[in-house]
Automatic annotation (TrEMBL), chain A:
Species of origin: Sphingobium cupriresistens
GO MF term set: heme binding; heme transmembrane transporter activity; lyase activity
Alphabetically ordered keywords of this record: Cell inner membrane, Cell membrane, Cytochrome c-type biogenesis, Lyase, Membrane, Transmembrane, Transmembrane helix
Keyword Membrane: yes
Protein name: Heme lyase CcmF/NrfE family subunit
Family per record: Belongs to the CcmF/CycK/Ccl1/NrfE/CcsA family.
Residue intervals of the Cytochrome c assembly protein domain: 89-295
PANTHER family per UniProt: CYTOCHROME C ASSEMBLY PROTEIN-RELATED (PTHR43653), CYTOCHROME C-TYPE BIOGENESIS PROTEIN CCMF (PTHR43653:SF1)
Amino acid sequence: MIAETGLAALWLAASLALLQLVLAFAGLKGGKPDLLAAVRPAAVAQGVLTAIAFAALITLFMRSDMSVLLVVTNSHSMKPWLYKFAGTWGNHEGSMLLWVTVMGVAGAAVALFERALQRNAHMATLGGQAAISLGFYAFLLFSSNPFARIDPAPADGQGLNPLLQDPGLAFHPPTLYLGYVGLSVAFSFAIGALLTRQVDAAFARAMRPWVLAAWVLLTLGITAGSYWAYYELGWGGWWFWDPVENASLMPWLAATALLHSVTVLATRDALRAWTVMLAVVAFSMSMVGTFLVRSGILTSVHAFAVDPTRGSFILGLLALYIGGALALFGWRIGSVREGAPFELVSRETMLVVNNLLLTVILGLVLIGTLYPLMTEAFGHKVSVGAPYFDRIAGPIALALMVAMAAGPLTRWRKDQARAVGKRLLIPLCIALLVSISLSLFAWGRIGILPFLGLVIAVAVGVGSLAPLWKRKLLRTPLFTYGMVVAHLGCAVSLAGMACDSAFTVEKLVAARPGDMIQTAGWSLRLRQIIPIAGDNWTALQADMDASRGGSSVLIRPQSRFFASPPTSTSEAALLTRWDGQLYVVLGEEVEGGRWQLRIWWKPFVTLIWLGGIMIALGGALALVGRERRGWLLKWRAREARL
Amino acid sequence: MRRLLIWLPLALFLGFIGLFASGLFKPDDRVIHSRLVGQPLPVFSLPAAASDRPALSSGQLATGKPRLLNIFASWCVPCAAEAPQLEALQKAGAQIDAIAIRDARPDVDAFLKRYGNPYARIGLDARSAVQMALGSSGVPETFVIDGKGRIAHQHIGDIRADDVPMILEKLRAAQ
């Protein structure tokens, strides 16, 4: 019954989306307010129904209902409950259901909480949201039904890919999807604005919180995914430029650009067409990313649903939505008035620079990701790896960091180049100091990019605090703190990346129990190798004492074997200290009772993810700050009227 | 100009859609052949990867007689599976050199001890630099090198038992 309830809820939600679409556009076209009055309830009901469908699927997984095909192929009754729960979205159908659920709930939130937007634009936005949802409902119901039954029901399931059996699965995909799909709200806003020709500061102020919220979640999702890959895959790397990682990075780059251009539009009523374009591009990148992952068109470590039928379905949706939005843009944007002009030396210009650099990185990542596809169309086969992305995107990202330090120190509308230079004096001096000391201590030992990365990270880190200089800290608005924290987070993260690539020490040894290993100031003693058993796995575990002068700590890298499906994974042992992480992987047994051990000492590597969390926290502070200011202004206006 | 800019995104996007569609409906063949087939080997010099075999440099592959260059790694399962075929090739008179990819000497020694050692020389390519220069996209791969140090043939993936006569034929043809 549960499966049927879920399926019925999905069909109902799809019909409501159709109704919502028709009501919104018929109402707008004919100017009938009674039709429009039903749009918001339809959106809310749709949100509730998708949530019911998703809850039904979670229940089926928790109960290990083996009469449901999806549970059989992706779960096992012996799995710990957390992975039964998170396994709901660790597969194609479940993750697409999560996608439409987020979309439905986001639509309901727009219907309930959006107050700033003018009524017609609000209705057009909800109509746009319904149009996008409809396509994904169709995809789910016609080609990826998560509730399909299997008869006769097998005794037990086939299990979940052991790489996914990790607490990371409970957190990373949902946050990432909330971010991906949250961007659909910005997309719908852009559609609504184009249809009603209302692209102005009020539109930007209404859209900003939705963009911020999606961006915060996307940032968290990417940060979590990076850390997960780092400790679970056991390669010691934190970013692999895999197509699927790029698929999450591209919407983030577009959303970051959008976040900044929407501020220009909200504050100064400039960059109208550009902001609308970015809102379209951001969610388009989410959809392109999904297409790349789900169609198996690019070879990737994440490609777990290789299926051309589904691929063509999503390609059709892409053509319809992105093509439609871009056509609407071409058709309508000519009639949107030019925004306000601004001087060459101004905050606006700095934000345009930010947008240009972000867009260039986005373009380069997109080209790098799709290049194998392009050359294949002409008969050559190539694969594009990390060297391309590091060399091409790295320097531009560093330039972007420099612009990031200068931007907040420039005034809106008009500023003096000399005055800006003066304000940048302290960061510049610090950059000089850091480069001199680095040259003295590490010349020739580190590459040019890590070198520049360290210099820029320190200088920008200090520079990002400058907007608080000589201000009354208690009276500074919360969203300014948000910006400072987010920019500081970028510098912190960059410092972590540069330290990791400049100073990591790697050692590969074959050790017998009792052996001592010395590396990077650490002494490790291999005590013993013992077999242990977990809920649904067995493992060989190395008990090791790690010490750095003081008392020693027990660390336990494992090599795990899962019975269903039969796979082995290596669980790295991580020892986190304030100045870095010790990362130990247990390999195979070699002759003479010796065991392979791979040991890394990674100075300050944790800063990468700390920075990511700070960036998200900054976004959250900005969101709360802006909303609170909105309430305060409204409240004061009401007080004044009374 | 402005009109052009306005429609440019749509035009670009339609191009992408065409690309996606062509990629989606193409037969699935993801083997990447080196573009160096028929070309001289890149110049390299690698340290020894095993304790009982000498190091390998590109000059040592141009000896006037055709040789095989096997790309393998101790951590690679298909490489272990192809070991008997390499053994058979060596028995049939093929000279085989090898490059161990992203490996370490104790691991290579253990691998050779377990699966046999048909190699004359083994170079260690710790960061895949030479592998990349050769245009090899994975392990195992086997190159037929003619007497002048040119790549005559590239075999991608492990050598199966029925590939052995073909490889011997290629070696003879490279004479």
